[in-house]
TrEMBL record:
Protein name (Swiss-Prot/TrEMBL): DNA-binding protein
Transferase recorded as keyword: no
Residue ranges constituting the ChsH2 rubredoxin-like zinc ribbon domain according to the UniProt record: 26-59
Organism: Sulfitobacter pontiacus
Positions of the ChsH2 C-terminal OB-fold domain: 61-120
Gene3D superfamilies (alphabetical): 6.10.30.10
Pfam families found in the cross-reference section: OB_ChsH2_C (PF01796), zf-ChsH2 (PF12172)
InterPro entries reported for this sequence: ChsH2_C, ChsH2_Znr, NA-bd_OB-fold, Thioester_dehydratase-like
Domain of life: Bacteria
Lineage of the organism: Bacteria, Pseudomonadati, Pseudomonadota, Alphaproteobacteria, Rhodobacterales
Protein keywords: Plasmid
């Protein structure tokens, strides 16, 4: 079996891709996963080598429910010719981790703390795949 070769620009000094690269590679395949510590059970995001809760290196990848709650929202004002306004949110996932993202499918000013959202994979500001959120519908 041939070894997998990685673009040297994609790797740092190590031989294996770091957790950020693993996360990005999963996203590129349409998979949103976060880490979970095998020692203490804490969910971890951003991707890390060591669990920030207990210091274990036993971090595996799991699929989160994708459900979360808006913690904070900012609208960045931008001229239409530069792409128009966009929002930046902090989302608390059910797993207890907080991530920075964006909410689509709702007016920027209607996004408020406490709004229930669900994750999907959309296009990030750089054109690459990114985790984005949409308001959760049909809760009733
Ligand atoms: Zn841990």
């Amino acid at each position: 079996m041939a070894a997998i070769t990685l673009d040297s620009e994609m790797t740092d000094m190590k031989n294996s891709p770091g957790p950020d690269a693993v996360f990005a590679a999963k996203l590129a395949e349409g998979v949103f996963e976060i880490q979970k510590c095998g020692a203490c059970g804490a969910h971890v995001f951003h991707p890390r080598v060591i669990c920030p809760t207990c210091g274990s290196a036993d971090l595996g990848w799991v699929a989160p429910t994708g459900r979360g709650t808006i913690y904070a929202r900012t609208v960045v004002r931008r001229k239409p010719e530069r792409g128009g306004d966009y929002n930046v949110v902090l989302v608390d996932l059910e797993e207890g981790v907080r991530m920075m993202s964006r909410v689509d499918g709702i007016a920027h000013d209607e996004i408020a703390a406490g709004l229930k959202v669900s994750a999907s994979i959309g296009e990030g500001a750089d054109g690459g795949p990114a985790v984005v959120f949409r308001p959760e519908r049909g809760a009733s």
